[in-house]
Amino acid sequence: MKTKIMKNVLLASTIPLLSLGSINGFAATELSLWYHGAGNPVEAKIIDQIVGDFNASQSNWKVALQSFPQESYNDSVIAAALAGNLPDILDVDGPVMPNWAWAGYLQPLNINSAAIEDFLPGTKGYWDGQLYSLGLWDAAVAMITRKSTLVEANIRIPTLAQPWTLTEFNAALATLKQTGKYDYPFDPGLAWKGEWFPYAFSPFLQSFGGDIIDRESYQTAEGVLNGDEAIAFGEWWQMLFQKGYSPGNSQDSADRETGLVEGKYAIQWNGNWTALNMLKAFGDDVLFLPAPDFGHGPKIGAASWQFGVSASTSYPQGAADFIQFATQDRYMTAFSDAIGLIPPTKTAAAASEHYRQGAPMATFFELSAQQAVLRPVTPGYVVAAKVFEKALADIADGADVVDTLDNAADEINQDIRRNLGYGH
């Protein structure tokens, strides 16, 4: 009898302990994460690993990942914001971030600035003096060609310290055109629409001395998008198509992808994301060259996809903890090795197969560090970018340069006024 009672006592005493253990096992608070990379299995594998490692590293938070196709991602976020159904953690394209912060989709990211001090500038998303987003990689654009192409044409190979000047670049295009070997000497990539235009081509405008918006006030495009320097850029841009140096708006998308490898183009303006393919195609003959200096220094675009914390989350610290966890060098190096993206830190780059010192793509890290310029950091960028794209497409088709740039500046100014200055 005594034994039976003792067994019952022991059984009763273990029930609360088992229940408590079960509760502890499911105590982690779920954090929803939306990501733009659906359809990219290589990228998805790394993101899945980060999420799994974070969930296993602690018991407070459990991140649940949902991926979207990149083409529909921004629309999904806007719809969710309007419905009051944003996730806890958002993926956001760097130049779009100020608009989402201004619109109330995002809140400041609570990460110690000292922890990201060594990150490339383009990976840190600041708006109104506060950090809102952080990227695990950056992207850079270069003049991609073959060494043999330039040597055979007796064209100087530029360096970071001595890029081509405007005169040199124009002369190089004329020389390559005269060889008769190529359909076009230079492919800027007009087959790619949307964000490619401001990302890839506004640095040319900035190198001429203009810009999309006056960055001192962010209240006007007058004088910077339609001033003398911008007009000089517009005339040069139009010249590329009038003289047959570049394929225009009707460029076939397949030619954009394979034209350089097939020998249709001598030089291509393209990003580090294509560098692995170029290395496979050309081997040691490939060159990744800096942007020309059109008078105000060589410039390229900066900022790619980044992580931020939604304004509506009840768990901002948990979301920030995940983002900081994801910024370990091993993950940033993994993205670099798998996809060719630029690691944000020198230590991550040093461990990378493609970006370590002496590696063929190390140039892109230096391009990003030395030449990269953010697209205008303003909520109004999302409208200005579309206006800029249309203006450049029209000029490429032969529209009057001065009238087109004047109209573009007016359209941007009207949008700024309608939105009461976008909070600047």
> What is the CATH H-level superfamily of the largest domain?
Periplasmic binding protein-like II
Structural class: alpha/beta
Shape, per Cα inertia axes: globular
Elements, N to C (H/E): HEHEHEHEEEEHHEHHHEHEEEHHHHEHH
Low-confidence stretches: 1-25
How many beta-strand segments? 13
CATH class of the largest domain: Alpha Beta
Helix content: 40-55%
> Which strand-content bin applies to the residues?
5-15%
Task: Say what the CATH topology of the largest domain is.
Answer: D-Maltodextrin-Binding Protein, domain 2
- Biggest pleated sheet: 5 strands, antiparallel
Rg (CA only): 25 Å
Straight-line distance between termini: 82 Å
The CATH architecture of the largest domain comes to 3-Layer(aba) Sandwich
How does this structure look, described?
The protein is 46% helix and 15% strand. The chain is of the alpha/beta class and 424 residues long. The strands form four sheets. Strands 3, 4, 5, 6 and 12 form a five-stranded antiparallel beta sheet that branches. It has a four-stranded mixed beta sheet with strand order 8-9-7-10. The radius of gyration is 25 Å and the shape is globular. The model is unreliable at 1-25 (pLDDT under 50).
